Every structure is written in C-alpha cells, then in structure tokens.
Amino acid sequence: MHANLLARNSSQAAVAVHRCAARHPRAARSFMRSTTQPASCSTVLTPEVSHLLRTAEAVCFDVDSTFCEDESIDELAAYLGVGEQVAALTAKAMGGTVEFKDALRTRLGVMQPTRAALDAFLRDHPHRVTRGIPELVALLRSRGQEVFLVSGGFRQIIHPLAEALGIPLSHVFANSILFDADGKYAGFDESEFTCRSGGKPAAIRHIKEKYGYDSVVMVGDGATDMEARLEGAASLFIGYGGVVVRKNIAEKADWYIMDIQQLIDALQKH
C-alpha cells in the first residue's frame, strides 16, 4: 500500500511540474535540471497544506520573483549601470549564503541611487505583476483572508504596486532608501524588519501580534521567505518557482508551486 501511495504521489508531482512547463518553460527546465529526485519536492497539495491555506487568517507574499516577475533591485541596478555586480550579490542574499543586511548595504553602496534616478526608473519600468496575482488577491480578500507584502525590496518601488491592487500600505513591510536634502543616496532605514536576516519571521510575528492572527501563510521564492516557516512565525511556507527555481527552497517548502493558478485552484476547491 505504501509503495502504491508513493508511486501515485510521485506521478502527481510529475504532472504538476509538466503542466506548468508550457507556461513557464525556463523555470520548469531549471527545476528539472536542479532536482535529482523530484519526488522529494513537495509539489503535491496534501490535505494538511490545503487546510492550512484555506483557514489562514492572512497570506504574506514576497514581492520580487513572486508577486512580480521583476527582481527590482537587480533591475534598478541594471538601470544604473551596475547590473552584473548587484545580481551576483542578490543571488548570494537569496541563497542564504550571506547576512542580508550586509548584502543590502553592499548592493546599495554599489548602486548609489539618487531620488531622481529612482523616480525615472519607476516611470520607465512599470511592474510586471505575476500572472494570476490580481485574481488571487481579490479571491483572498473575498474570503476574508488579509494580504500582506513582506519584502527585502524597497517601499518606494512596492507602494505604487500595493496601491494599484488595493493593498493598504500598512500591510507592506519592506526597506526604505534614504536620501539627503539634495536627493543623493544617504543609506537605508535600518529599523525596518526586512533589512536583516530573520526580518521576515520578525515581520510576521509582528503582524500576528498586531492583528491577533493565529495562522499566517508565507509565499515566496527565496531563503529569507522560508525562514518565516523554519522559525515558526508562519504556519505554512509555499515556495514559488514560476520565475526562478531554487533547489534548496523546492526541497524544504511545505508545498512547491510553479503557477499562481495552483493557489487559486486550491482555495476554490470544495
């Protein structure tokens, strides 16, 4: 019986990956290359995960490469002419191999963004919202489940996105770039939860305490997102690989998805 169940789950996992390959070919190819034992990744929606998702009082989303297809820090860096240097630092930060605050300080130090440059970037680079996100946000809110954005990115970039989707700015936890009187880069606000490693679990604990929530779900693509589950702040961590696949996240997530539609389907399931 156990062998039959394992075979059935392995088959379902393979179907889940191949169904999304047509929609996300690069991410799917990356997933198949990086995962030597696909059955070890939690691509099957279990009853336990379904229950936790459907009964959670709030769902928190990472922004870059999850809520949006952009990796905004990298794209801002490219806009400023230092893209390759900063992309390498971002990969280290998201892979969990360097303290996040140190990586953030180094990246911004290389970038030296001015207020004028950031404003121009926002004009020239509208958000590429991940397909299905507007519908998912509307569905969650119709169910009485609150939506929060918990990101290592920047408020200056995320706030317009939140406003466009009707998410209160009080539900955004992200970093703030500081400027001097002349609009030159003057550091970042080190009091923000998400400027440091362990910041996302801290932000979710704050959300739970402030709003009296018992169960919160975290959805994201990186190590800083998974921390929220490993440290016990989030009841459930859903890894998202529709933009970029990270093998360590795929292996440790409670559920690993490649398409936001999978979340919509799970919530609509009777």
TrEMBL record:
Its cofactor is Mg(2+). It comes from the Eukaryota. GO terms for molecular function: L-phosphoserine phosphatase activity; magnesium ion binding. Pfam families: Hydrolase. Its EC number is 3.1.3.3. Coiled coil: none annotated. Keywords: Amino-acid biosynthesis, Hydrolase, Magnesium, Metal-binding, Serine biosynthesis. InterPro entries: HAD-like_SerB, HAD-like_sf, HAD_sf, PSP. Pathway: Amino-acid biosynthesis; L-serine biosynthesis; L-serine from 3-phospho-D-glycerate: step 3/3. The active site is at D62, D64. GO terms for cellular component: chloroplast. GO terms for biological process: L-serine biosynthetic process. Belongs to the HAD-like hydrolase superfamily. SerB family. NCBIfam families: HAD-SF-IB, serB. This is phosphoserine phosphatase. It comes from Volvox africanus.
